[in-house]
Amino acid sequence: MTLESLRAAARSWGAEWVEGAEIRTLLTLRIGGRALFLLRPGSWTAAASLLEVLEGEGLPYRVLGAGSNVLASDGDLPFGVVLLRRLGGSVRWSGEEAEADADVLLPALAAESVRRGLRGMEGMGGIPGTVGGAVIMNAGAFGCEMAPLIREVGLLEPGKGLVWHPASDFSFTYRRTDVAKRGIVAACRLRFEVGDKKDLQSAFDRNQALRAERQPKGVLTSGSVFMNPPGDFAGRILDELGFRGRRRGDAGFADKHANWLVNHGAARYEDAWGLCEEARRAALHAGYALEYEVEVWT
To answer: Which of 84, 88, 100, 94 is nearest to 152 (CA)?
Structure first.
């Protein structure tokens, strides 16, 4: 399968196709180079068929949703990007259960669950990204996370199409899962607990206010760089080590939160990665083994 024939397949499905695509503008951090190609299906049906082609021919690619939590290298990247964004996804509600397509935005799902008086996502209203990305990384905040809610995950698998798996088929740990090794997340089925609407809304609003107070607004950012170590916070550790507001070129840690990577205008991957590694080594020297939460594409 050549790029030319893949392009023809994309056109036959009415998908957007760009060779040598700049992906910087697709990422919330606005750092990144040129992918071999950008493939943007217009529907989940088209996505399933085109992903089948990619897998069958062994073409290298990465899947991108909302574009947060990614730090991509500058220059030419050795893979294509499949953009699964705005595919018309929806959420189907049935009592305390919901089936959500992977392209649904997580904050919208969290807000609606709270409005319905369902407990489990009241801390997730400010997490940027899609439901699919949230499943893959077991996203969470303020004592809430995806794992306890997930009942089943729908994956697009090579040669099989959409396959539903029980949550027990996967390993869920803090900000890590093995879901992506099995296929592309197309949807998930969730089960919430019924709660008091007023209490849940109060908790939701309080968590949103705390996020606004602690984390930067109106900046180019990928979000948290490192996962919190057990019983501690990466932001506290980096703050203690003097990384709050530290810059290398136009890349820096936020003035408001020492674990948030920001682009002050024209940051390069070299500077951003170098700063992150400087912070990781400093933490290790101080006795803290920090692990990356941000996904690094090189």
So the answer is: 100
The whole-model pTM stands at: 0.89
Q: Which domains occur in the chain, in start order?
A: 3-83 (3.30.43.10), 91-197 (3.30.465.10), 216-297 (3.90.78.10)
What tokens were used for 51? 């992903």
- Residues whose CB is less than 8 angstroms from the CB of residue 38 and which lie 6 or more positions away in sequence, other chains included: 16, 17, 18, 21, 23, 26, 80, 81, 83
CA 229 to each of CA 135, 174, 235, 285: distance values in angstroms, whole numbers, following the listed order: 20, 10, 10, 15
Instruction: Note the pLDDT tens digit of each residue in 167-186.
Output: 999 999 999 999 999 999 99
Catalytic residues: 175, 224, 293
Please report the sign of the dihedral spanned by the C-alpha atoms of residue 228, residue 128, residue 179, residue 263: negative
The sign of the CA dihedral 130, 136, 140, 145 is positive
Q: C-alpha angle 27/59/138, rounded to 5°?
A: 45
Tokens of residue 265, six digits: 């205008």
Which pair of structure tokens corresponds to residue 247?
Answer: 């810059």
Quickly state the pLDDT bin for 5 (edges 50, 70, 90).
confident
Spell out the residues 6+ positions from residue 58 whose beta carbon is closer than 8 angstroms to its own: none
DSSP string, 191-216: E-EE--HHHHHHHHHHHHHHHHHHS-
Taking the C-alpha atoms of residue 269 and residue 83, their distance in angstroms, rounded to an integer, is 21
> Angle at the Cα of 35 (from 29 to 38), degrees rounded to 5?
95
Alpha carbon 220 to its chain's center: 15
* 120: Cβ contacts below 8 Å, ≥ 6 apart: 113, 144, 148, 149, 190, 192, 193
User: Which residues are CB-contacts of 237 (< 8 A; sequence separation ≥ 6)?
Assistant: 229, 283, 286, 288, 290
Give CA separation, 235 vs 6, 288, 289, in Å: 44, 12, 13
What is 119-165 written as a DSSP string?
A: ES-TT-TT--SBHHHHHHHT-EETTEESTTTEEEEEEEETTTEEEEE
